[in-house]
């Protein structure tokens, strides 16, 4: 009897140990648990809500298609309120309580930076498609993949369009940028463009994030004869700059980063929000000629409520395209889904297409940043839409 | 010269908003000796309420403002009754801490109810404006100038000629004596909070119309604070005039110097002025008999 008990116990432990050794965290026979940290409250929830809704759409769709190799997808959402300390706390909770397999939403730039040591320590496959900064991939982490250009690359490409397509070489250029990481990154792209084309940089205006009144700044720009202004402000700041320019009867060409590709900018700017340019790496929600956008909007109409549809913006397209990349990598791994396999499959992506949502996505050995090609969009204030006005441009 | 005029006029346009906000701070301090750190948040709350009203009913600007004035008065009275009156008899520092707590609470409530997306306050004046030679001003900015003048005049008449105004001045001068003279001090406090909230409401509607709404709108309260210190914490008129001074100064410093001086120019002036007149430009000097 004694030997029988010992034998049974040993066999049980071996079996359990075997299963434990083989199964990846968050993966069971019929389910894959993924995590997403997004700012769902506070001012940046404009980004996070749209991103998380897109992930919900993808989750519903992929499950309706039978899941990934027979496993249903379950996404755990955590709200970090755009506070880096809360991002890390959210990730810890998702690892320890929810047992996630991978991270499919990584919040903002500083927020991801706060999570990076834990992502690296635990080897969690993660994809950042929301806020790209060079310190996310320089030096690269083994399991963290970044898709999309930096603001610096985005603005530099936008300036290429202004000079090469619109012929705005002999103009007077200026930049208004906020006093943070985002503003610095936009300035980096602006200076790259200025240097590349030898442009006349007549004014650099730094302002405090959240500033409401730009009357003095725009009068200064008018006095300097500025005809092209690159805006390194987010929603409200960008729209106020536009309004001030209109108020001062300035005939000026505006270029913003993808943060200007949002309908609230148009709404706040009113008629002054017509015609400005935004450099982005995803098309507009109304670009239904792009297959990926048409499919996403069909699915969104199917799975989201009317009020949720109102929360969609370009971050939804970025989130959905990111999910497509992750789905591909997980599908390629087959039934034997492990973190190492997903990382390997991601690394092997070479010109992966997302039906026009991103430009072709390529990673490689030690290459964790896919700075997909940028396009320029133009604002149509009256119908609150954006038109694609350029071909996709490879970034430098 | 044109550049100087343009900077000055646009400085006045933002300065009148600082002045209006500052008047609310000063009035509360004058009547209760409390610095209301929730004043910017009250302004934001009412501007969001204005948004809900304007989105639900088609009202002309003045109609919307009138409704908001009424709502603001109620908001002020409720805040005083619920949060401030229980603090009567406590030291001023405790009441100030309550206003800080109230500020945090209002910020959270605004995001909870209206969300965090930037919003446009839909009014019938929109982007319309008037051109005076080389200066263009939005209609809302012209209204702001007129409303500041109206509020200053109204406050002067109120404090100088009305029974409640005189009672408020008496309470501000010496609360105990006012009590002994039969003045209902709690009533005075409630009215002061209501009037301050009305002024906050007016500035909130104007700010929302000119710059749009966002959950960071309360920071304009902080930007207006130098005006109150410069004018003298207990001088309602001083705050109004200093608001304009600060607005103009900010614009001139940015226009001619730049380098982020706009952000600190108001505080630099305060430092200088307070060294010469510690009670502000228009404040009441404190005289201690020894």
Rg of chain A, Å, rounded:
23 Å
Q: Return the structural class of chain B.
A: mainly alpha
Query: What is the CATH superfamily classification of the largest domain in chain A?
Result: Response regulator
The number of helical elements of chain A comes to 13
Percentage of residues in strands of chain A: 15-25%
CATH fold name of the largest domain in chain A: Rossmann fold
Spans where pLDDT lies below 50 across 5 or more residues of chain A: 9-21
Distance between the termini of chain B: 53 Å
Helix content of chain B: over 70%
Instruction: Tell me the overall shape of chain A.
Output: elongated
Strand order of the largest sheet of chain A: 7-6-8-9-10-12-13
Do you know the CATH architecture of the largest domain in chain A? 3-Layer(aba) Sandwich
Q: What is the oligomer described by this structure? A: heterodimer
How many whole angstroms does the radius of gyration of chain B measure? 19 Å
Could you state the order of secondary-structure elements of chain A as H and E? HEHEHEHEEHEHEHEHEHEHHHHEEE
Name the chain pair whose interface involves the most residues. A-B, 34 and 36 residues
Family (chain B): Belongs to the binding-protein-dependent transport system permease family. LivHM subfamily.
Pfam families (chain B): BPD_transp_2 (PF02653)
Main location (chain B): membrane
InterPro entries (chain B): ABC_transp_permease, BCAA_transport_permease
